[in-house]
Automatic annotation (TrEMBL), chains A, B:
Its cofactor is a metal cation. CDD domains: ACT_HSDH-Hom (cd04881). Belongs to the homoserine dehydrogenase family. Pathway: Amino-acid biosynthesis; L-threonine biosynthesis; L-threonine from L-aspartate: step 3/5; Amino-acid biosynthesis; L-methionine biosynthesis via de novo pathway; L-homoserine from L-aspartate: step 3/3. Residues 353-426 form the ACT domain. The keyword Oxidoreductase applies. This is Homoserine dehydrogenase. Keywords: Amino-acid biosynthesis, Methionine biosynthesis, NADP, Oxidoreductase, Sodium, Threonine biosynthesis. It catalyses: L-homoserine + NAD(+) = L-aspartate 4-semialdehyde + NADH + H(+); L-homoserine + NADP(+) = L-aspartate 4-semialdehyde + NADPH + H(+). Pfam families: ACT (PF01842), Homoserine_dh (PF00742), NAD_binding_3 (PF03447). Catalyzes the conversion of L-aspartate-beta-semialdehyde (L-Asa) to L-homoserine (L-Hse), the third step in the biosynthesis of threonine and methionine from aspartate. The keyword NADP applies.
Amino acid sequence: MMRTRPLKVALLGCGVVGSEVARIMTTHADDLTQRIGAPVELAGVAVRRPSKVREGIDPALITTDATALLKRGDIDIAIEVIGGIEPARTLITTAFEHGISVVSANKALLAQDGAALHAAAEQHGRDLYYEAAVAGAIPLVRPMRESLAGDKINRVMGIVNGTTNFILDKMDSTGAGYQEALDEATALGYAEADPTADVEGYDAAAKAAILAGIAFHTRVRLDDVYREGMTEVSAADFASAKRMGCTIKLLAILERAADGESVTARVHPAMIPLSHPLASVREAYNAVFVEAEAAGRLMFYGPGAGGAPTASAVLGDLVAVARNKLAEATGPGESAYTQLPVSPMGEVVTRYHISLDVADKPGVLAQVATTFAEHGVSIDTVRQQGKDGEASLVVVTHRAADAALSGTVEALRKLDTVRGVASIMRVEGE
Amino acid sequence: MMRTRPLKVALLGCGVVGSEVARIMTTHADDLTQRIGAPVELAGVAVRRPSKVREGIDPALITTDATALLKRGDIDIAIEVIGGIEPARTLITTAFEHGISVVSANKALLAQDGAALHAAAEQHGRDLYYEAAVAGAIPLVRPMRESLAGDKINRVMGIVNGTTNFILDKMDSTGAGYQEALDEATALGYAEADPTADVEGYDAAAKAAILAGIAFHTRVRLDDVYREGMTEVSAADFASAKRMGCTIKLLAILERAADGESVTARVHPAMIPLSHPLASVREAYNAVFVEAEAAGRLMFYGPGAGGAPTASAVLGDLVAVARNKLAEATGPGESAYTQLPVSPMGEVVTRYHISLDVADKPGVLAQVATTFAEHGVSIDTVRQQGKDGEASLVVVTHRAADAALSGTVEALRKLDTVRGVASIMRVEGE
């Protein structure tokens, strides 16, 4: 079954992930050959800075002209680990046009232009694999696309950003505030100098869009994903969460509506019970909880980033794409046949945990309770706490539409007796 | 891309899993058609008791002659959910001989005859998929075979039997003894009337053999798997575990030796720290922890049994096999190119937690410590506890070869001052 002509691989980008991919392709060449049924050969490495010393990579393979590498006629598979929109998008399209299948780790591009790239792959009869684009090393795209292909996924809830999980875990375990925990994450290399993409939820939103498409067999654009960052989460919120037997995580949540006719996609911090499997995901680990009709509740856990873990996912895809190439077949392409509308955040049904600073006088609770009732939001529990003439009121609601909950909060802010809304957080995972 | 001639499926067995497979094939026919690219049709159902009423299945499809069904010439894919060795083995072989690809949920058969069945599938150019054979609905076989195909798996540690996890979780959370917890499991339908296969670890050992083969690309026979049941685990063991910040799980553990030249496979109860992700796997859930060289630490969690979850895994395989059939390709077959020897249990390196009942007099600890030293086993901690003239000694060792640890225990039993070895348990997951 073994053939000797090697499959030729063009590596586009040679940063943290790319250099690991090249290293493993070299050190594990024999294993890869056995698993694929043919050798794979690194036939070219396109980089921006050719002068940089790259250990273990033959300098003759280095080029700055990625397009020429793809067009030279002998490449079977391209691995795109450049990241960002351009030139990655044009290069991937060029690859398909030249009969080259593509493995990509590019979440931003897949989230923004996944549909067009899938269409291009299909048009040219080539593969587009991207396990590494979501949750790093964790096998997630393949299990959702293939293992659960005979099932119906109703809900996906995940921790898909390691930086923010590291920060929140620190806040939870040490009582630190946001800034202190962020500083530690930066010092340890878990957060970038500009942490915006992580802490404001942009990174998680891109992954949410990709996962929603796979889970629901529909197209979910990045703009369809409701996004709230976690920079406002405070030590006081963690104290409140603890009193409820909860912790706080930045979650990507994708849901099919009860009637099955629409979906929702959102990223925001939320309280989840300590008994939930996601609550025990520590440090920079990622985990994704999937609820399917027949399979029930599944969870996938592992490192969500890093050079070697991401390279592991890229190489798993490389093996699959190489096997497909030898069989002259392609793997499953985009499956977006349901065309379900994405509902706005206001239609999401969830629960709220609201902390209010209120005047310490009789009738306040009645006034607050009336406001909730007027907006059709049912209260689960209320806790009153007096302190030096001031008082605080912590309300946890039953499930209600997000718009009704927002409306309630807006009305509460206008009450004389409410001096301030100290915090608002959704409660998930029950 | 859509073709209209349906792929014809023979369902062999129609018990708890088979009837769910038939139900989902009917109710989700449109989804399956979209995901495969052609309709799949239930073309025949082989059963033992044809008179039994089977809701939702056309009685005209029912037959007692599974062999004739496979030989009739129009079947593309067979789903084997009979279980056990025969007639399942002969039927699967017959299927391959007639050009039929097979999806099986049969762990006992795969563990015993996996190599021969894989060889038969390859000889006839057909697929053999069996995601449902290990850990029910949890995508595990595909992620390990495909997602991690570019990585090197060094260790697999899993809870792969739901019945025993339910029992151990009850013992942990309620302080119940083994028999009481087993009775509850039986009453709730989690344990069978004869629970031997579960509680003695036979079921877990079969799954361990299958997983070891996939993880290490080598053949591991059922006889190669060391097996210890969990019927001796006591409430006192859980109390000891708690004092160490641990709980007790029945684990399947597969390891590649440090030199990479051999592997080990074993099933036994073990203490694991509460901070380990496997410690929080409750009730009848399964979870498998995989350590790979590049990917790092991954975990896969979900329901390990039950009709619908197992059917989900079967249908995922059905979609893959059907897609392969349409592409006139086959998926990855057995990958057993490494031919690594399986070392005996004595060579496994692990830690022990040993409770001794000893005479309450001076010099006992020195005598016990000397015995450990003589066998080359280094002690991590010792705790002494006196009670009414008797005393107990709890020793936790550092890592040592299992044979050295067994030898130590044997020698301890012969000491005058040791009145009895109250319990011995391995400590894992650190």
